[in-house]
């Protein structure tokens, strides 16, 4: 299959990857217009059925899984600070360039905690202590390229 027009959002075959099921074709998938993701921002996109976080860090695009490896929250609903995305659910932090986990969940400063009963606050703090020791895996990171003003992610 040859390359299709970027405006048609068709995959671009590029190479094969070895996996447990044998060889599979990797493709670059058109996911967004470059102008729709300004520097310092991130968006949720779908690429070959996968949830992908597309981030523009200083004018360079990066793509990682948009699902937190702790409890699968959409990272694109969180905060991007430079190349670091913070999960909106429990505060795990990831490097969007390599997908590396930088820190696990944090629940110490949950909004509204002071409004709970003393027993509920104690339970929340206990859960926070458990979550602080949770192991959080790195995220899959995907190669990205820009062609004709379109952002393509390799899946």
Describe this structure in words.
This protein is mainly beta and 155 residues long. The chain has one domain: Rieske [2Fe-2S] iron-sulphur domain (Rieske Iron-sulfur Protein). The chain contains 1 helix and 12 strands. The strands form 3 sheets. It has a 4-stranded antiparallel beta sheet with strand order 1-2-12-11, with no helix packed on it. A hairpin with a 2-residue loop joins strand 4 and strand 5 (60-65). It is elongated and about 60 Å long. The two termini are 16 Å apart.
What attributes characterize this protein structure?
4-stranded antiparallel beta sheet; 1 helix; 12 strands; 155 residues; disordered N terminus; Rieske Iron-sulfur Protein; mainly beta
Provide the fold topology:
Blueprint: E1 12-19, E2 22-33, E3 42-47, E4 50-57, E5 60-65, E6 79-81, E7 84-86, E8 93-95, E9 101-103, H1 118-132, E10 141-142, E11 144-147, E12 150-154
Antiparallel strand pairs: 1-2, 2-12, 3-4, 4-5, 5-10, 6-7, 7-8, 8-9, 11-12
Compact summary:
With 155 residues, the protein is mainly beta. Helices cover 10% and strands 41% of the residues.
How far apart the termini lie comes to: 16 Å
SSE pattern: EEEEEEEEEHEEE
Quaternary organisation of the protein chains: single chain
CATH class, named: Mainly Beta
User: Please, how many helices?
Assistant: 1
The CATH architecture name reads 3-layer Sandwich
β-sheet strand percentage: 35-45%
Instruction: Give Rg in angstroms.
Output: 18 Å
CATH superfamily, called what?
Answer: Rieske [2Fe-2S] iron-sulphur domain
Mean pLDDT: 83
Strand-pairing-aware structural class: mainly beta
Query: How many beta strands in the DSSP annotation?
Result: 12
Number of domains: 1
The coarse silhouette is: elongated
CATH T-level fold name = Rieske Iron-sulfur Protein
Helix content: under 10%
Strand arrangement, largest sheet?
Answer: 1-2-12-11
